[in-house]
């Protein structure tokens, strides 16, 4: 399976999409690069919530491996999301290119780091890692599978958390031009934390707030006016991530000045007056000679 990310993660294909090497290689050849930001924490959460579920092809008995490929430092908390995956027995291999942060790669990756962290100076050099990484991955899968059959305990990834771990009934209220109030019903088993992620639906930088598990409401402020926002509320447990709640709401437009009037005309001046716009601190007045005017 493969997901690509910037501000918003995107599943390119699920674990169950292809069944032959040739099909996978053809899919890679047809992959279109997704530029943009580097929200690695959001991407790792997407992999857990969307890609490692049975309906995406994840098998309970199979080892779970995530290979992270990044060329920059994360703009959100990648460590928290990575720790959630690792607590579930999912191994993370971190590969950095160009401007990747070596310290962050080591923080995100699973132990032993000498086998799970790789860094190269440019994209063409990735080809030098393929042979070694393939051997390491295959060896790790065999080792873990052998431990499991020998009777050692290996954590199963919870694949269907159900209502016990998932909040419900997201309500968005008190919407203004720059704020909104979120509230939800907590799951039967309160989580350790909530991750609240919100960003403009037409593209923009995602922002994230982390709340204690006892809290079930939040006011979002400093928003952009007249903008549709996507909101996700994701419960995080010590050993699982519950299904997230999602909502869409638009902030109100800013109020406008009204009833523009012109008076006291002379050969080189005029007076303008208008009804005030609620909340405005300044006005910018532009004028130019019509129709093709000289200077403003």
From TrEMBL:
Location of this chain's protein in the cell: Secreted, Extracellular space, Extracellular matrix
Domain VWFA span(s) in chain numbering: 1-133
Main localization (coarse): secreted
SMART domains documented for this protein: FN3, VWA
Family annotation (Pfam families): fn3 (PF00041), VWA (PF00092)
Ranges of residues in domain Fibronectin type-III: 166-255
Biased segments, Polar residues type: 150-167
InterPro entries assigned: ECM_Assembly_Org, FN3_dom, FN3_sf, Ig-like_fold, VWF_A, vWFA_dom_sf
UniProt KW keywords: Extracellular matrix, Secreted
Region of interest (Disordered), residue spans: 147-168
Protein name: COKA1 protein
Gene that encodes the chain: Col20a1
């Amino acid at each position: 399976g493969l997901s690509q990310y910037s501000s918003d993660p995107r599943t390119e294909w699920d674990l169950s999409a292809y069944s032959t090497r040739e099909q996978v290689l053809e899919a890679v050849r047809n992959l279109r690069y997704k530029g943009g930001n580097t929200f690695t924490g959001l991407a790792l959460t997407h992999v857990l919530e969307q890609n490692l579920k049975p309906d995406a092809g994840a098998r309970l008995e199979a080892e779970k491996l995530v290979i992270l490929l990044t060329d920059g430092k994360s703009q959100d908390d990648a460590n928290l999301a990575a720790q959630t995956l690792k607590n579930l027995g999912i191994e993370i291999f971190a590969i950095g290119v160009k401007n990747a942060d070596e310290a962050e790669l080591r923080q995100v990756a699973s132990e032993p780091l000498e086998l799970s962290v790789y860094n190269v100076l440019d994209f063409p050099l990735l080809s030098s890692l393929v042979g070694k990484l393939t051997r390491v991955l295959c060896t790790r899968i065999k080792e873990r599978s052998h431990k499991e059959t020998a009777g050692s305990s290996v954590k199963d990834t919870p694949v269907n958390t159900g209502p016990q771990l998932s909040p419900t009934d997201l309500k968005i209220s008190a919407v203004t031009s720059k704020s909104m109030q979120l509230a939800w019903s907590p799951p039967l088993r309160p989580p350790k934390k909530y991750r609240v992620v919100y960003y403009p639906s037409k593209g923009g930088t995602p922002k994230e707030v982390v709340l204690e598990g006892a809290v079930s409401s939040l006011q979002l402020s400093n928003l952009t006016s007249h903008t549709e926002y996507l909101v996700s509320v994701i419960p995080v447990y010590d050993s699982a991530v519950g299904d997230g709640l999602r909502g869409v709401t638009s902030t109100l437009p800013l109020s406008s000045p009204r009833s523009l009037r012109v008076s006291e005309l002379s050969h080189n001046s005029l007076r303008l007056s208008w009804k005030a716009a609620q909340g405005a601190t300044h006005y910018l007045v532009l004028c130019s000679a019509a129709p093709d005017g000289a200077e403003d």
